[in-house]
Amino acid sequence: MHLKPHQLLTPEGVHTGRAAPDIDAVRARYGALVEARLYDHKASALQRQGRLATYAPYEGQEATQVGAVAPLAARDWLVASYRDAAAMFFHGYPWKNLLLTRMGDERGGHPPEGVNALPPSITVGGHMIHAVGLAWAERLQGTDAVALTIFGDGATSEGDFHEAMNFAGVYRTPTVFLCQNNGWAISMPRSQQTASETIAQKAVAYGFPGVAVDGNDVLAVEEVVAEAVARARGGDGPTLVEALTYRIHGHTTADDHRRYRVEEEVATWRAKDPLERVRLWLHGQGAWDETWQSELEERASRRIEAAVAEAESLVSFTAGEIFDATYQELTAPLRIQRSLAERDSQ
Amino acid sequence: MSVLTMAQALNSALDVALSDPRVVVMGEDIGTTGGVFRITDGLAEKHGTERVIDTPVAESGIVGAAFGMAVAGMRPVVEIQFMGFSYPAYDQVINHVARIRNRSRHRFTAPMVIRLPYGAGIGAAEHHSESTEAVYAHIPGLKVVVASTPENAKGLLLAAVDDPDPVIFMEPIRLYRAARGEVPGGRHTTPIGSAEVDRTGSDVSLVSYGAMMRETREAADRLAEDGVSAEIIDLRTLVPLDADTIVASVVRTGRAVIVHEAPLTAGYGAEIVALIQERALYSLRAPVQRVTGWDTVVPLRLAERHYMPSVARIVSAARQTLEG
Fold first, then answer.
1. Across the strands, what pairs with A327?
2. Structure-derived torsion over alpha carbons of residues A33, A39, A45, A48, reported in degrees to the nearest 10
3. Catalytic residue among A260, A279, A299, A303
4. Cα dist. B42→A184, B12, B32, B60 in Å?
5. d(CA A188, CA B31)
6. CATH for A23-314, options being 1.10.472.20, 3.40.190.10, 3.90.950.10, 3.40.50.970
7. Cβ–Cβ of B32/A187 closer than 8 Å?
């Protein structure tokens, strides 16, 4: 079963869609891509300096993440995983929170009120079904909000993927499944993860549409997800979107990808960079120059640096505070343990 | 004999195990890249990818498939990357792996090993620091083993592969490279079901296992500086428990402190306390103490130190037994 990935912008920056895109809208997406990349580089640098624990870089996948959340309204849910900081940020989850979690501070998991995004899922398979429950609840409660879940190609091997897809199909929940197929699950190439030719085609078996999209093309991802969101919002049920992209770096900062893949493969994908094609197109429209690029980078850097400073200024938990979110009310045995822990840490 | 880290000792055990054609090793990223902790480094190259198998990301699938292989006469050794990722396979473990012998009255059995890197202290992300041995120890039909030195890591793993029943094999992540020691070359086994008196003493018995053995030994050193003679028992196997070694020690010292990093409530320490009161109550000169992780989720990196049982807590618990 062959599904040609939807594409609007070639790696060379040629727009192949029917209608010309709105330049301001593309400029906005480009600004987001620039900020996403800067954050990823910053986080990797912070990890090398020992200021973050292990980090999972997403360089190369910015277009999928920015494009995926662009069609969402604030009331919509996002249930993403540990490599999806950019998607989460552009759905309102602050850089500060994303950094805190990576620093090893639980308060990262508490985004501001009104941000409908769960903390990043660390387990690979468990979160997709949550987007089914969230979307289902929204419908039961009479809203038109939808839920988008982002997961990797490896996650589609977990049994939980099947259950999530099946529930969504059976109950026609307003859920959008976005598989961010970056080619690798740690050291396992996509070809060994599933015998299916594509991941998108798996949707057929669950009774709803599956579409493939060039995951390095922000405009195409946005268009495809917007259609899926519209279907979900309109009561037409779930969609599976497979975004074909690539993990430029290792699985995490603790992984050496040279052990299992060749540099040429990485180079091939660097040539399909998700930022460069947008820049080229804008340049061709006379809508990009160096000055604007610098402005974008400076503005993004300021926001990111402010988030780093804010995150690092938080005082870490006392021994007692590790108890305080175990239950709504501290139970009697925990009150005793809490005071012992406080005493021992003196 | 050579000096190896625990990681190298486990690699050596798997290498020896694979000389038995019934053995296959399977798990996520264990082939080409040698596992997230490099425990299977070089094994796929040496023994082939038919027998050192990189699997899809599917813990229930890995354990369920290994179960089928075991029933059909193979000896699968499964690696789950972190204990906290083993729960998707829990249904397979409890409902099938642990029970097929009883369900079929010995007609079918599942001799297999499930290796679970476990424990906190490495500043990892959520789910990477679990020590949930109690949820496995509670299940009839499973044996539960916890390595604490390079030597017993190798010996217990080879014994687990030989065992006719399924074995949950816990490996302390923070000792993978920190623990170094003499390890016999070739085939070397440590009997399952036998605890080791790690150090003899006369005033108090410190009972521990796995990663916490390090803190327990340090605590014994500190107690010795104050003239307190602590005996250390390394359980090595949680199920089946070597009750005699524990009871003999407590009968002699009259005092006991149990140390584990898993949470207190319904933790494995409670099992030891129950055993001691059943068989050594009248020898006790003080209530048995437990030094454990708190009843909380293991905190992330910045507050993790508040969770781990410290040497100071072990020393203070031991003193409490001495003060009566």
1. none
2. -110
3. A260
4. 21, 11, 8, 26
5. 9
6. 3.40.50.970
7. yes
CATH architecture under which domain B196-323 falls: 3-Layer(aba) Sandwich (3.40)
Interface predicted TM-score (ipTM) of this complex, two decimals:
0.92
The architecture in CATH of the region B2-183 reads 3-Layer(aba) Sandwich (3.40)
DSSP A242: E
Nearest-CB residue to B85 (from A123, A319, A321): A123
Whether residues A106 and B296 touch (CB distance < 8 A) is answered with: no
- Is there a contact between A238 and A177 (Cβ–Cβ < 8 Å)? yes
Is A105 an 8 Å CB contact of chain B? yes
In which band, very low, low, confident or very high, does the pLDDT at A1 lie, cut at 50, 70 and 90? Answer: low
User: Using only C-alpha atoms, what is the Rg of chain B?
Assistant: 19
- Per-domain residue ranges of chain A: 23-314, 319-346
Determine the distance in angstroms separating the CA of B295 from the nearest CA of chain A, rounded to an integer.
Answer: 7
Q: Report the residue from A260, A333, A334 with minimal CB separation from B32.
A: A260
**Nearest residue to A260 via CA among A279, A272, A247:** A247
Beta bridge partners of B196: B234
Smallest CA-to-CA distance from B238 within B215, B210, B219 is with B210
Tokens, residue A253: 């900062």
With an 8 Å Cβ cutoff, the interface of chain B facing chain A consists of: 28-29, 31-34, 36, 54, 56-61, 84-85, 88, 123-128, 264-265, 294-297, 299-304, 306-307, 310, 312-313
Closest Cα in chain A to B60 = A159
State pLDDT tens for residues B1-31: 899 999 999 999 999 999 999 999 999 999 9
* Residue ranges covered by each domain of chain B: 2-183, 196-323
Q: How far apart are CA B189 and CA B91, in angstroms?
A: 30
The token pair that represents A64 in the structure block: 């999928």
- Closest-CA distance, B14 to chain A, in angstroms, reads 21
Count of helices and strands (H, E) across chain A: 13, 7
Residue in this structure with the two tokens 């990477």, named with its chain if needed = B128
Q: How far is CA B239 from CA B86, B138, B177, B235, in A?
A: 19, 9, 26, 10
Give pLDDT tens digits for A147-199.
999 999 999 999 999 999 999 999 999 999 999 999 999 999 999 999 999 99
